[in-house]
Specification:
The chain is α/β, with parallel strands linked by helices. The chain contains 14 helices and 21 strands. Helix 1 packs parallel to helix 2, helix 3 packs across helix 5 and helix 9 crosses helix 14.
Length: about 400
């Protein structure tokens, strides 16, 4: 199964002030493992230099269809090699060209000669965006199968406020990756837990852990890219909710358990990523416990084992567990998988993974041990889901 990190993107820039965002967009696409080739119109060069994009991508920026390196056939050679052409920013003028099939420079010719998806991110003044001619052109592009990302509403470079701002680079990078993923999980309902839980001691103190929730949120995003319907039960985090997911915010392990019980019957896959507290205080105080010189003893009682509950249901979903260990990773992870009768368990060393942007996962299933190369958590999440798809295919 082809992965997003093998995609080759032609990133086209047209002449708008939002061209400065294209530098960050190129960086983020490359960070996701994509190969990015930039092509610019003459007007775009007035807003950002080819040298900036070349430094970011490591590839010479193309500005002319008569480039000798392409034998005068850049519009053919590049479009045939690309998995997608992304125009960001796409000005009103360039959108009009696309809608009417005009091809008088490298970028417009490339779009007309392509045999790959075309994705555009409009960027213009609000009145230009709202003009009937622009809206007709956008409607025509949609009818032609072009993917339109944005625009957004907000303060514009001209000082006016309204619809027409290009989406921010982070949102664009996410949406581009999502649009290019094959929808292997279309129609599949995934329930997953993420983040830490918080067990109150009194009105202001509690027991928690250092989980950031990044891995769980990355899996939610990767699942959405593959077309899944995602319900994310999240403990307290500082992360933005994945766009398109149904998010259920909880605090304690008991809250998380109740939320899982409410949604699990409708789920095809359950992924327990959350770092659920193993214990809670037997009797928490509604008021702040005042400090004194005396020792304080807290009685801790076990929290419910959410993953074990789901795996033991009469008709359980496909269950995936997570284990964060500080030592003996293989031994402890495999013990946990077998004890809970899980088809798959993902494990890592807590001291390396908690709070970090990169991760190194080891997957354990009936066939043995599968190490995923160290990479960012979204890449790890995509690889994990591909492994889940493969295992579920063997079961069916």
């Amino acid at each position: 199964m082809e992965q997003t990190n093998s995609k080759r993107i032609v990133l086209g820039l047209t002449g708008g002030i939002a061209a400065y965002k294209a530098a960050e967009l190129a960086r983020l696409l490359i960070k996701q493992g994509m190969e990015v080739q930039v092509a610019m119109t003459e007007a775009a060069r007035h807003f950002i230099t080819p040298a900036t994009l070349q430094a970011l991508t490591g590839k010479a920026v193309l500005t002319s269809q008569w480039d000798e390196a392409q034998n005068g056939m850049a519009h053919i050679n590049l479009s045939r090699a690309a998995d997608a052409i992304v125009i960001a920013p796409a000005t009103a003028d360039f959108i009009a060209k696309l809608a009417h099939g005009q091809a008088n420079d490298l970028l417009s010719t490339m779009c007309l000669a392509r045999n790959c998806p075309l994705i555009i991110a409009p960027a213009m003044n609000r009145q230009m965006w709202e003009h009937p001619a622009t809206q007709r052109n956008i409607a025509q592009l949609k009818a032609d199968g072009v993917t339109i990302l944005g625009p957004d509403s907000g303060l514009q470079a001209c000082g006016e406020e309204g619809m027409g701002r290009m989406l921010e680079a982070e949102q664009l990078a996410h949406d581009i990756a999502a649009s290019l993923q094959p929808k292997f999980l279309a129609g599949t309902k995934i329930l997953l837990t993420a983040g830490p839980t918080y067990e109150a001691i009194d009105a202001v103190r509690g027991i928690t852990n250092r989980s950031s929730g990044k891995m769980g949120y990355a899996i939610a995003q990767a699942a959405l890219e593959l077309g899944a319907q995602v319900t994310l039960v999240s403990g307290p985090t500082a992360l933005s909710c994945p766009q398109g997911a149904q998010v259920v915010n909880v605090s304690s392990a008991a809250d998380m358990f109740e939320a899982v019980k409410q949604h699990v019957a409708a789920s095809d896959i359950f992924i327990g990523v959350a770092a659920v507290a193993d214990y809670r205080v037997a009797q928490s105080s509604a008021q702040k416990i005042k400090k004194s010189d005396a020792n304080l003893t807290l009685e801790l009682v076990p929290n419910p084992d959410i993953l074990a509950y789901v795996a033991a249901l009469p008709r359980p979903p496909f269950c995936v567990g997570f284990a964060a260990e500080s030592e003996n990773l293989k031994e402890y992870a495999e013990q946990k998988r077998r004890a809970k009768k899980l088809p798959l368990l993902a494990a890592n060393l807590a001291q390396q993974a908690i709070g970090a942007d990169d991760n190194e996962l080891v997957l354990f299933d009936d066939a043995g041990e599968h190490k995923l190369p160290s990479s960012n958590k979204l890449t790890q999440a995509r690889a994990l889901l591909q492994h889940i798809i493969k295992l579920r295919g063997k079961q069916s």
